[in-house]
Amino acid sequence: MGGKAALVLILGFSFVLGYISTNLSSIASRAQGNMSSYAASTVSHNLAISAANAGLAQLYQDTSWRGTVSQTLSGSLNGTATYSIANDAMGRPFLRSVSVAQGTDGLVRDTVEISFAANSYQSFTLFAWLTDFEGNVFWFTGDTVVGRVHSNGNLHMSGTPVFMQKVTTSGGFDPKWGTGGNDAIFKAGYETGVADIQFPTDLSQLFTGAASGGRAYTGNVEVRLNGGTAADNDGYALVYSGSTLIDSINLNAGGFNGAITSTGVVSVSGTLDGKLTIGSSTNIYITDNIVYENRNYNASDDVLGLVANNNVTVANNTANSSNCEIDGSVFARDGSYGAENYNTGSPRGVLRLTGSIVQKARGAVGTFQNGTSTLKTGYSKRYRYDDRLSDPNFRPPFYPGFYTARFAISNWWENVRIPKFY
What we know:
Layout: H1 2-61, E1 67-73, E2 79-87, E3 93-103, E4 106-123, E5 129-133, E6 138-140, E7 144-146, E8 149-151, E9 155-158, E10 162-163, E11 167-169, E12 173-174, E13 185-186, E14 190-192, H2 204-211, E15 215-217, E16 221-226, E17 236-241, E18 244-250, E19 259-262, E20 266-272, E21 275-280, E22 284-292, E23 303-308, E24 312-314, E25 324-332, E26 337-339, E27 347-361, E28 366-368, E29 375-385, E30 401-415
Parallel strand pairs: 5-8, 5-27, 6-9, 7-10, 7-29, 8-11, 9-12, 10-13, 11-14, 15-19, 16-20, 19-21, 20-22, 21-23, 22-24, 23-25, 24-26, 25-27, 27-29
Antiparallel strand pairs: 1-2, 2-3, 3-4, 4-30, 16-17, 17-18, 28-29
């Protein structure tokens, strides 16, 4: 009996060990298959992502390119990747990337699709200072600008002007930064050779708004702003033709859309309580301080635009002979912002502006003693950006804007194959 029992025991152990060995072999085989499937899926996904990024690089280099590129790779990324760029129904580019890799269960495919938003509309008030070209006017020691600065041309520097936010230019610096007289201080850096920002060809949006819901005049007029009482939203504007009062406008009245224009020269001064844009088919003259009733800019809802087809000029008069303060956004579509007779007479102190300045050609506001920061004639500058204007939805009524010819990713979708584990 003992011998038979031992034989049965040995046979039992052999069966159990054989069963375990078979299961271990099966598990090892399945693990190898799972790893192979996972590796193929990873390769396929990486191929699709790599092709999508290659397509983005292609579009970045040439936004007009449309077509298909396919490439077969070997090594760690063993498979085929194809990306194509075509226009969608709205005429915007649409990028599709497809990958193919060999897996244990056959071919593995992944897809990436990318949609774009194009040509976004931006307000010129996003810049503290913007010019199409700077002419031969220099930034000098003692000049300080808080806010974004851009020029479509070259920026001219002398000494150590200070720029608190990033400076960009489609050209460069004259002279080059850090060489021979250009020691400008860029607190947030600078970039040269960026794309131009295109100026509008007319001011039709503003003038159409003034004709339907605002005030549209002909000839030369003077606009005197009055803040009313200390309470918000009771400001008004008095409009004169010569010495004759021709209109009184409650700036916050229902039905008034905030636009005042004239076909002639417009002179402006006073205190603003409300939201207003004043436009001229020719020139605007600033004849005295123009300030907001609430000058706590973070809490104020007052906002002003001074928009001229040609020039916006600080008048050379008694009121402006000792400093001048301006709250508002200045836009000179085909002209300049500057000071009248800036290079004659005695120094007039400091020209302070809180808001933004956009002009076709840079205008001058003063001159300095050669090789020094001593004011000789006109004004020294203290320009500060109104931070509220960084919100593109906060701007003076009908204030001009521009399109940026760029594409931004609006949607990135990935169809990733999930490996089958067994």
